[in-house]
């Protein structure tokens, strides 16, 4: 058979056109290369910068105890697991971490996934089928949206945080065999916390399974950092909590916790669990050690909250809108105009500060923002530098005209899910 390269090149034309459109709009995704560790201070292009774009909130990815545990773990287990969990990929460290996470989260059992993204896909596809209904918040993470679509269930969304509309959506699905409500516990683009008690209560009233993704709450919220359920006094009272090892715990991987029955069911029905190579054993060891450090060094959690409050209040005092971010280390700084956004991000980088620009389709048009992610390891002088540059930016580029809040429009093509990034 002869390959018709001309035909292949012709078929690629629409993709080239979309790339050119992104280039013309100046909205290519950023892929800066970091040359050091993802700590509060790192290196880019041979120079030191303050890093305000990492989810390594507690600095545990670089903690000496975590690093040493990985070194020893590689010596014992090697790196890869070599198989899926249902074949030869379940090692003692996998079950030990699942048991520790279940204890840490105050639930009966836990199921590990290779990433947090897979955890949402696995839970939703494991619990929902064609003919079911899944009700989601309009600002839910892309992995939740993808999970619903892959499950074949009908997806219905309600305006962000609107519990009355959540109730209405659930009641409109009475004929449905099975109903799920899936929300983010902490919203990664706005930094606000879901009202879990109200959402969970409505789901229970309407006989729906309630799932909450605590990716940005684990290791951050609650008196001891156990997450959003601890924060609200709901430990062990949510049907399924999804989480990740890749943010405050400083590693990689995902998990779901809940009752023994529901986790056992997911072990038999969750395709990303059954058909995927299991986490490298050293990732389990690192996560287990990170939990130990979180418990042994509560001052890290206290410092994280102090740093987040200091920077957030400083930005507000300058005049920036930080939405409803209050108790999380995620601080959105609304800019609106994308050209102004990119100029400010460039200005920050020139002054040795790396931040995350967020624009459509990750948020609404004219709702672009800088997402600043605070770490426990940031020093006061680093935060003061950020505030000095942002004060200059406010003087130079303000006033800012933006759309406050709301979900992005769906965008078919590149970056086809107009929902939250990590």
Radius of gyration: 22 Å
Name the CATH superfamily classification of the largest domain.
Type I PLP-dependent aspartate aminotransferase-like (Major domain)
Order of neighbouring strands in the sheet with most strands: 3-9-8-7-6-4-5
Proportion of residues in β-strands: 5-15%
Oligomeric state of this protein = single chain
Total number of helices: 14
By DSSP, the count of extended strands is: 13
CATH level 1 name of the largest domain:
Alpha Beta
Order of helices and strands: HEEHHEHEHEHEHEHEEHHHHEHEEEH
Tell the overall outline.
Answer: globular
**Could you describe the largest sheet, including whether it forms a barrel?**
7 strands, mixed
Any idea how many domains? 2
Question: Your description of this structure?
Answer:
The protein has 422 residues and is an alpha/beta fold. It has two domains: 32-61 and 298-397, Aspartate Aminotransferase, domain 1, CATH 3.90.1150; 64-296, Aspartate Aminotransferase, domain 2 (3-Layer(aba) Sandwich). Helices cover 42% and strands 15% of the residues. It has 14 helices and 13 strands. The strands form three sheets. It has a seven-stranded mixed beta sheet, sandwiched between helices. Strands 1-2-11 form a three-stranded mixed beta sheet. The longest helix is centred in the N-terminal third of the chain and has 21 residues, at 5-25.
